[in-house]
Amino acid sequence: MGKRETVAIPLAVQLHQRLRRAVVEGHYPQGGVLHEARLAEDLQVSRVPVREALPLLAHEGFIEVTPRRSAVVATWTVQRVNDVFDTRLGLETAAAAHAARRVAAGAEPADLVAAVVRAEAQLEADDDEFVQAEANCAIHLALVAAAGNELMDSVMRAVGGRMTWLFYLTANRDLHRQRDEHAAILDAVRTGNDRLAESLTFSHIEAGRAPTLAKLRDDLS
User: Fold this and answer.
1) Domain of 32?
2) How far apart are CA 132 and CA 140, in angstroms?
3) 156: number of Cβ within 10 Å
């Protein structure tokens, strides 16, 4: 067998990933201004790749670009939290039902199975809350992808960054209970039970709304 080619990750993408984690973990606080010069110094790079990474963060909802072109870390509000949950309820519940019907028609939800397995392994092997939040989010991305609808998938990926952020902020929730809920949703999809998959997904998402809003209130008090 020939050697596997190594694909180089563009520097702007690497910086996006590093800045994404730094924002989620609060190293750059909500409402704080991000100056290109300071970011370049922090990351020990030139300002050019930093400038290229910022639009990626903006697309995912981590930062906002003001008319004067300065970047500000997004601030969570009650409205924004509810917007994420309402979007997820409409999108993920429909996707879960579509995914189950596709499986009933012969499709294999291999990526969804893999995402659930990876998250379970991560939960038992590592206490890195950011990594666990990303693994949790990956399940939901895979669930929507299993619906086989490119537009649904595109919208979900735009929401994924915000989901990871909220999952990290509520890392004190019972992750083992969430694991069991993920497993139940997966079982419903794999058995082609669209109504059950839809119902379980709705309940799973909605269960996170109250603790997320409570966390926001605690942070503001």
Assistant:
1) 11-73
2) 13
3) 24
